[in-house]
Amino acid sequence: MTTPAENPSYQTRADGAGLDIDTVYTRCPQCGIVATSTGVSYAITADGGLDPAHPLEITCNAVGHRYSAAFIDLLAHDATATCVRCDTVFAVPAVADQVVCPSCRLYQDGPFLHADDSRRAELDRTRQAHLAQIRAELDRTRQAHLAQIRAALRASRPPPGVSGDDEQPVPTRCIR
Ligand SMILES: [Zn+2]
Ligand SMILES: [Zn+2]
Predict the structure, then answer these.
(1) E strand or H helix that includes residue 155
(2) Which ligand is nearest to the CA of 31?
(3) Residue 89 per-residue DSSP state
(4) Model pLDDT for residues 114-149, shown as the tens digit of each residue
(5) Ligand nearest to the Cα of 90, by number
(6) What is the pLDDT of residues 79-118, one digit of tens each?
(7) Are the beta carbons of 80 and 99 closer than 8 angstroms?
(8) How far is the centre of ligand 1, averaged over its atoms, from the C-alpha of 73 (Å)?
(9) How far is the centre of ligand 1, averaged over its atoms, from the C-alpha of 19 (Å)?
(10) Domain layout of the chain by residue ranges
(11) What is the pLDDT of residues 37-92, one digit of tens each?
């Protein structure tokens, strides 16, 4: 694994197959989390390296936001973290909320989370809000699907009187 001397904001993979996405840190413009991404796509130069002339397409790993980041938006690795599992010391941005160990690939708290207690609560709120949104969307999808099934069942039901399943009025008695 090498760190290009002119830009310590990412590393290339040990096998030479391009960018190591677990070393690319950006700030999500929508939720503000500073972390690596679950997905990065980027333009490559003729020799297969990262082409800094084109923006990177990034997926926020906290909440799944998609955004473009210019090459200069990649955060410099200006601090170090020690992996809680394998003790590897690796370079990360000091403002990172979450980091990934380049050896064992464990996601863990970044230096910024330790610097500020309210930061963790803030990120928890962001994640919770996102989960609530996903649940609400699932619920809407489920309700719409159920309504569709009910409509299909109604449409396929024989006319009243044939199957005997039309509702009879319930006898009631009023006692004063
Ligand atoms: Zn985000
Ligand atoms: Zn590790």
Answers:
(1) helix 117-156
(2) 1
(3) E
(4) 777 788 888 888 888 888 988 999 999 999 999 999
(5) 2
(6) 999 999 999 999 999 999 999 999 999 999 999 987 777 8
(7) no
(8) 15
(9) 21
(10) 21-112, 116-155
(11) 988 898 888 887 788 899 999 999 888 899 999 988 999 999 999 999 999 999 99
